[in-house]
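A favour, since you know our C-alpha cells better than I do. Just paste the record in under my message, thanks.
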Amino acid sequence: MHRGTTANQRSRSSCSGSQNGSCTLSNALRGVYLNRELMKSQFSAWVLGRALDVSISLSRRGEVSGAVGVASMLFQGNRFNRAIEVVHVLPAVLKTGYLKVIIQDLLSPQAPGSEPFSKWPFGNPLKLLSLALYHPWAWNAFAHAYDLIPEPTLAKLKLNSEWMVFQASTSPYAEAHRDVLERGNEAIVLLCDNMKHHEKGAEPLIAGCSHSIMQCSRCKSTVYCSPECQKEDWAIHKDECAMNRIRRIDLLADSAWISHRTRARMLKLIGTRLQNRIDSAELLHSPGLIPFMDGTKYPPGYQQINARSFRGMQRGGRPIFNGRSEAMFDLFADKSDQFELAAFKVELGQYYVIALALFRSLHAFAQGEIEISSINGSKRPEVQRTLRALEPLTVYTLYFNVYDYHVDECRTSASSP
C-alpha cells in the first residue's frame, strides 16, 4: 500500500484546472477516514455523485479524471479496512456510478509508458472490488451496475486483459449469486445447524424446501428446521451460546455480523464451486484432505490442505477451532466417504472470516482399478470414484482480527488438485 504522501501527490497530478470542483471533493476525502455515521448516511455515494456531475459538466467528452480523483480516494488502501465499507459503502457507491468510473478509466487512452489505473494511488480498483464480491450485498449492487453497461462497452471490455482477469477472479461467485438473483427463494439453501439433521429422515435442506426456520432465542447465532433438531444440537450449542451472544453483539457494532441469510449464500457459493470441480473431475476425493478456497487473493486461490494440520492451527497457544467446528472435523474424519468438508477464507474489513462448510455426498463412492498410461508407456492401477452430488448441510463462520493475527497458509502437506 502506498504511503499517504504518495497518494496525495498522485491524486494532485490527476487534477486539471477545469475540474477544480471534483478535485475539491477528492481533497475532502484525502486523509480523512469517514466515521460510522457518515458511512451509513451514504455520504461517500453523495460525494461520488457530485464528482460525476462536475466531471460531466466541466470535462470534455470522455474525460473522467475528476471523478477518478474522488473514486480513487473512497477506500484508503488496497483492501477494505472496515466491514462497514463492504456492506454499506461499496454497495452505495456502486449504485451511484463507481463501476462506471472504473470502466471509463480502464478504457480511456493511456499515456505512453503508463500502466492501467495509474491515477489510482492505492492500486487496481478491480482487484479491490473482487475481494468483496463474495458478500451478497456487494454482489447485488455490482450486478445491478453491470447490467447498466452498454453493449458496445461490454464488447470492448471482453477484449481488455485487466477486465478478463477480473472476470476470471469473480467467476466462482457469479454462478451462485446469479442463481439466487434469477430464481429468488427457490435457489436459497436453507440452514439447519444440527449436524445430525440428515439422520432424522428429514428432507434435504435444498432449494424450494418449506421448512420453518427457527433460531436460538438467546444468542441468535444458530438456526434449525425444527424444535427436535434444536434440542438435538444442544449438546454442542450449550457450550457456545453465551460466547456467541457476546460475539454477535460485538460484530453487529462493527457491521461485521454475517446473517443467516448471508451464511446460507456462502454455503451455496462454496457448494456450487465444489460441485463444478467435481463435475469436471478436477476434484477427486482424497481422505484427509479438504478443499480450501482463499478469497483474499486475486484471483482466488484453491488447494487441498491436510485436515488434521488445519484443525490443529493455534492462536496464542490455543486452538482456533471451537466445539462446533471440532464436531464438523470429527464427522468428516469418521465418515469421509459420506461427507465433504471445505473451507473458504475471505476478508470482511478488519476481520478475516473462515467459513467451514459441511456437505453430504448423495452418491456412494465406487472404487475400482482403472488403467492409466504413464509417461514411459507403462500402466498402473488407480482408484476411481463416481461423480456425486453434494447436499449442503451447514456452514460455520469464524472471525479473526486482521490487525493482530493473520490466518496464513496452513503449514501442511498440501496438494493441489
In short: The CA atoms of residues 162 and 291 lie 28 Å apart.
